[in-house]
Amino acid sequence: MIEVKNLTKIYKMGKTQFKALDDVCFQIERGTTFGLMGESGSGKSTLGRLLLGLIQPTSGEISFEGKKLNGSLPRKMQMIFQDPYSSLNPRMSVNAILSEPTIIHRLPSRVDELLALVGLPLDAKKRYPHEFSGGQRQRIAIARALALNPEFLICDEPISSLDVSIQAQIVNLLIKIQKELGLTMLFIGHDLAMVRYVSDKIAVMEKGKIVKIKNADEISSYPHELLFFSKTVGTGPNV
Q1: Going by C-beta distance under 8 Å and a sequence separation of 6 or more, which residues neighbour residue 21?
Q2: How many C-alpha atoms does 16 have within 13 Å on its Cβ side?
Q3: Potential cystine with 208: which of 22, 150, 154, 164 (Cβ 3.0-4.6 Å)?
Q4: Nearest alpha carbon to residue 198 among 218, 173, 222
Q5: What SS3 class is residue 113?
Q6: Over residues 155-162, mean pLDDT
Q7: Model confidence over 112-149: pLDDT tens digits?
Q8: pLDDT of 73
Q9: What gap in Å lies between CA 177 and CA 11, rounded to an integer?
């Protein structure tokens, strides 16, 4: 479904250059979850934003369903951002937040359906983001990402800003929604246990390069693989 070939991103700062991504290649099969791990600054979020077309690559190709994107963003691709406190407009009601994508694309409203899908009561649509907890806000952000019936969902560290007690609920919600809707997902994270739990394959990034891609079950089966991952990205508090 997603194919990335030789993707490179170079930022220029005066006379100096910083290579955020260096010749990255991988594929994500339809209906699977591809986990992406790495230390801060390894290029994870840059890769997610390149896939979504928020920034443009220096070189390389991104293909979605066999078609090169060339900077365009298919409606079938959406993103869940890391921080639900900053990703939701505090001046808009939940009803307005969830209606906005369908209004722009002239599609029927799905607010009630979306709220039910993410486990929020229908009266939530009358309220504003500041009236919800962090976990509830992220549920609203997930609902907004689903408003246009996407096929590919980029989850950019969607649980890192949440309390530990809420993280598993959001991850389980994403797994449930993926199965119900047949979604393909890129799950970016730094907690090995959580990424392994949600993913079919896991890639590790280091200094802009993918240094390892393994099936999630292979990683959980072999202690030496866990040792490699812990040295590369840190095991996190839940491992």
Answers
A1: 7, 8, 9, 43, 46, 47, 50, 57, 208
A2: 3
A3: 22
A4: 173
A5: helix
A6: 86
A7: 999 999 999 999 999 999 999 999 999 999 999 999 99
A8: 67
A9: 36
